[in-house]
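Input sequence (318 aa), recorded before submission:
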Amino acid sequence: MHAREHPRRWRILLAFALVYFFWGSTYLAIGVAVESIPPEMMAGSRFLIAGALMLAWCAWSGRGIRLTLADAVRLGTIGILMLSVSNVILAWAEQTVPTGLSALLVAVTPIWFLVLETWIFRGDRMTRRGLLGVPLGLAGIVVLLWPDLTATAALDHRELFAASILPFACFAWATGSALSKRWQSRIDPFSASGWEMLIAGAVNVVMGFVLGEQHRAVWNLRGIGAIAYLVVFGSWVGFSAYIWLLQHVPIPKVATYAYVNPVVAVFLGWLVLHERVDRYIVMGTVVIVAAVALTTSAKVKRGAEPAAEELPAVEGTG
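Predicted structure, token format:
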């Protein structure tokens, strides 16, 4: 057998560690970045830089980067849903919602993905085991938000409102993931991701100027450093490790990132930003991790028009 078919164990462990840690840490980096740089400008600069440099690397390494008009429309649609809508909503919410709590609320995205596949796109259908994850995930969200639901302070109500917007971010990401799965193309996955980031980044920057965010942005060292971290470790290192794992490890094992990332995010939020970790966070974490584990590990029944099996990336919802 070729070495590529059976990579050494340490390479697999390293790739998992990179995806687990760096994608889990993007929530913290986004929270730090939006302290001084508004969401649209933050996401725009991040994805413009990451997309342009990824495409440059693809061209240098001999990967095809040319697009047809149809491919451009498809990749643009996917990129806008996942990186202009979903990621910006997450960034906006993190101006009020703690980064660890945001990560836990976003962790239910794989459940959204299977719900869309089952009832909207009529593709893969969930088994009973997967269906159990849906109400369990909703119960976990209620547990997480219980202090805000029962609070009377204005700040808690603002946090509750921002947290209630995050399901729309999950829905947009899951929709983009579902479309990505169905719109199979012959474009290299790294090149496709580069175009998605570049197009979405351009849209984000334009929206930032329309909203006047350039006047509120403070490009200090802390904010720029957070964006640089997101570009290098979120968009490059983490994503590259993820793609490599998909090529060498069974998809159910790769799917474990979906319930490890929020745990990492909660820990880093507590360690770096001193965010609260009370009994509701602990109980909500257990419930949501269990719900996502049920959903992502459940077998699916193929629809009438099976598509190539692909696991949607849930990196900071974008």
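Checked by second reader. The CA atoms of residues 19 and 238 lie 5 Å apart.
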